[in-house]
Amino acid sequence: MFSFFEKNTEIPTADSALPGRAQAIEIDSVHLVTGNPLHGPWPEPLQVACFGMGCFWGIERLFWGLDGVYSTAVGYSAGHTPNPSYEEVCTGMTGHNEVVQVVFDPTVISYGELLKHFWENHDPTQGMRQGNDTGTQYRSGIYIHSEEQMALAKQSLADYQLTLQGAGFAAITTEILAAPDFYYAEEYHQQYLIKNPGGYCNMQGTGLHCSIPSTTAGDSVNVGEGS
Q: Is 55 labeled as catalytic in the residue annotation?
């Protein structure tokens, strides 16, 4: 994704972040691909996952194409500025990451399978960038909605780190956090690659495969704990 702003590679403090605004960005209510709502509340048994993997345009297309995914939306999360604009996020002074919110049916696709797609479709070792996209908004992140998700995310990170290490990659830099506020991105970003079929997509994986994690009896997880 392209921007004319100078890229910040350090997350600002809450005190130094841009002030933002009280009013949320308004977007259409229906997903252009699935035909399902873009806003909750979500009916049972649907669950929510949230991932940062670089430019959110291609990442959203990856997830909306999976069987069992009910809806997706792109937005901003894990920062300080309330209801940020895209231009503000691009300055690096909101602290937000570009993320995709994935609403899925766990009876059709498991959270572990979503994690497999997460790890295999970007390089989680690059810190504050993804390929040629540089800045805090392109960092790798998993934003957690339950203790089970936290256990699976941490297990999958440990397993995939061994795979990457064996292939000569550096340490994983992915942040794993209890889900912060999610702010919808502007309407033109939603399902961007349907609206712009030839649009920019910088999604590239490492070429290495990740196993699907499974829960282990007796896991004790602090949902508020980062990676």
A: yes
Domain ranges (residues) in the chain = 47-195
Give the dihedral of Cα atoms 6, 13, 49, 193; nearest 10 deg.
Answer: -20
Rounded to the nearest 10 degrees, what angle do helices 111-120 and 147-166 cross at? 30
Query: Is beta strand 140-144 parallel, antiparallel or unpaired with respect to 175-178?
Result: parallel
Global pTM reads 0.92
Q: Which CATH superfamily does the domain covering 47-195 fall into? A: Peptide methionine sulphoxide reductase MsrA (3.30.1060.10)
User: 129, 135 in Cβ contact below 8 A?
Assistant: yes
Mean pLDDT of all residues in 179-206: 96
Nearest Cα to 46, choosing from 37, 59, 56?
Answer: 37
Q: How many degrees, rounded to 5, is the angle at CA 14 between CA 13 and CA 18?
A: 100
Q: Indicate which residue of 50, 55, 90, 210 is catalytic.
A: 55
pLDDT band at 214 (very low <50, low <70, confident <90, very high): confident
